[in-house]
């Protein structure tokens, strides 16, 4: 889930060596929009931290590579950020690190029961599967490889946990906490993005 399209996979392969050289892990690569695309790159340190200076430094490191390889034709915007508090979960191990927290998951194909979207609490992660206690009742055991989207839900518990891990760069206002889930689609551009909390570094490319 770190990269989905062929273009995103190509960009991930292109920039990952630079990230590793800087001690960073790439959480997600997304190319969004059509007229002037946004190349969104989420990254973090192994401890989950990522401040504005880290984002800017990584952006400067990969900009010459992107200019040389030119993976996106025409003008686009480069956005480097931390995953945010209600972060996307994209890698094996991500779910286990946030066990007990609320999560939304979408599968690429429906289950035998015809369901693609799940909303509940992470119980455990093992052998590439995630156990979830569902808010509408019951449980689910979902394979990470089948997921196309997964992210934490912003709650007071998550905010406090993120703070205890040193992953909250600024305070989060109480009215930012999400209410009841109604199974509507969550747009990629909103996943884990908070202009104050994510420490972004943006640039425009031609």
List the helices and strands and how they pair.
Blueprint: H1 6-21, E1 25-32, E2 38-44, H2 52-69, E3 76-81, H3 94-97, E4 102-107, E5 117-126, E6 129-134, E7 139-143, E8 147-152, H4 156-164, E9 201-205
Parallel strand pairs: 2-3
Antiparallel strand pairs: 1-2, 3-9, 4-5, 4-8, 5-6, 6-7
Topology order in helix (H) and strand (E) letters: HEEHEHEEEEEHE
Major sheet strand order: 7-6-5-4-8
Number of helices: 4
CATH class of the largest domain: Mainly Beta
Q: Please name the CATH topology of the largest domain.
A: SH3 type barrels
**Count of the separate structural domains:** 2
Task: List unreliable stretches of 5+ residues.
Answer: 169-199
> What is the end-to-end distance?
27 Å
Under the CATH scheme, the architecture of the largest domain is Roll
| Share of residues in helices | 10-25%
Mean pLDDT: 85
Q: Please state the CA-atom Rg, rounded to the nearest Å.
A: 17 Å
Number of strands: 9
Q: Beta-strand percentage?
A: 25-35%
Structural class: alpha+beta
Structure description:
The chain is of the alpha+beta class. The chain is globular and about 50 Å long. The protein folds into 2 domains: 6-85 and 194-205, GMP Synthetase, Chain A, domain 3, CATH 3.30.300; 94-190, SH3 type barrels (Roll), CATH 2.30.30.100. The chain has helices at residues 6-21, 52-69, 94-97, 156-164; strands spanning 25-32, 38-44, 76-81, 102-107, 117-126, 129-134, 139-143, 147-152, 201-205. Strand 1 (25-32) and strand 2 (38-44) form a beta hairpin. Strands 7-6-5-4-8 form a 5-stranded antiparallel sheet, with no helix packed on it. A 4-stranded mixed sheet has the order 1-2-3-9. Helix 1 (6-21) packs across helix 2 (52-69).
